[in-house]
Each structure stands twice: as C-alpha cells, then as structure tokens.
Amino acid sequence: MTSVERDTRIVPPTTAGEREMLEAWLDFHRDTLAMKCAGLDDSQLRTASAPPSDLSLLGLVRHMAEVERGWFRHVMAGEERRRIFGTREDPERALHVTATDTWEEAHTAWRGEIARAREISAGLGLDDLGAGSHHSGETFNLRWIYTHMIEEYARHNGHADLLRERIDGATGD
Question: Among 31, 126, 115, 17, which Cα is nearest to 76's?
Fold first, then answer.
C-alpha cells in the first residue's frame, strides 16, 4: 500500500496551555482532512465509499465547511444562518455531491469558513458564550465549540481514511 501525500501537518504541542492545545488539535484535524484529499482529481474526490452510501471526500469537505459556518458564524458570532451547499429542504445537501460539484468550489468555501472561524475566535475567551442560537436553544461557550469541532473532524477523518484507501489504496494517519 502507498502512503497519503507527504505529511506536512504540525503535531500539537504536548505541554501547551488549554487554548493553544485546543486550537492546535483543531488545526491538526483540519489539515488531516486536507491531506486525505491531496493529489486527487474531482472524479476521485466524488467517489462514494460503498453503496448505498454516497459519502465522498468532496462531500466531507463541503459538510465541514457547513459545520465551521454553523458553529462559528451562527452560534458563536450570531450571524444569520445561511447554508453554503445545503437547503432548508435538504440541510445535508453538502454531503450529496453531483457531477457538477467541484473541489475548487468546496475547498475555497471550506478554507474561507476556517479563516472566518479563526477571526471570530481570536477576540474571544474560552468561557465566552456564543451570541447566536443553536437549533436546540442551548448556549455554548468557545471551549465547547472547539472540543466539538475536534470531535467532528476526528470522526469524519476516520471516514476519510476509508474513502482514500478505497480510491487509491493510500493509507496513513
């Protein structure tokens, strides 16, 4: 088996403070998803895992753009909730890619949402509560959102491992 593209991720520090540790692990997992997609063309990125599932790497990147937007823009910053790829009728549309969906579009949206998430978080403390609302009605602090985002990426990076291996046999952390 081959290995996924050269690993350029920054390993999180082992003795950092809480915020630095949370941000480093979140960035590590963001970079892991990018690494799993590296070197593939749009067709490969659209490749579904195993029928009947239509889960793909492209779908995961689109989904994570929506997740970044939802938690940081909507819940933390209180910005109006507008989906990038989903609709009211199909909120999970991001996961269901078509032949016209492209890596360029998905990657640009995802990186844009990561940049905006960093901007929003930069001015906040870990205990600061979000200015927006979650569909559950609960309030969340930045610490909870960071922890949840690490969990969300870690779970989907497990999916990405399997997807990438199915596409071209590449494996790796």
Answer: 126
DSSP string, 123-148: T--TTPBPSS--TT----BHHHHHHH
Residues in the chain: 173
Going by pLDDT thresholds of 50, 70 and 90, the confidence category of residue 4 is low
Other CB atoms within 10 A of residue 28 CB: 17
d(CA 171, CA 131): 41
Largest CA distance in the chain: 47
Quick one: CA torsion of 33, 22, 113, 132, rounded to 10 degrees?
140
Phi first, then psi: give them for residue 83, nearest 5 degrees: -75, 155
Measured CA to CA, the distance from residue 151 to residue 12 in angstroms comes to: 15
If you ran DSSP here, which 8-state letter would residue 94 be given? G
Q: What amino acid occupies position 70?
A: G
Which range has the worst mean pLDDT, 6-20, 27-41, 142-156? 6-20
| pTM of the predicted protein model | 0.93
Domains identified in the chain and CATH numbers: 18-168 (1.20.120.450)
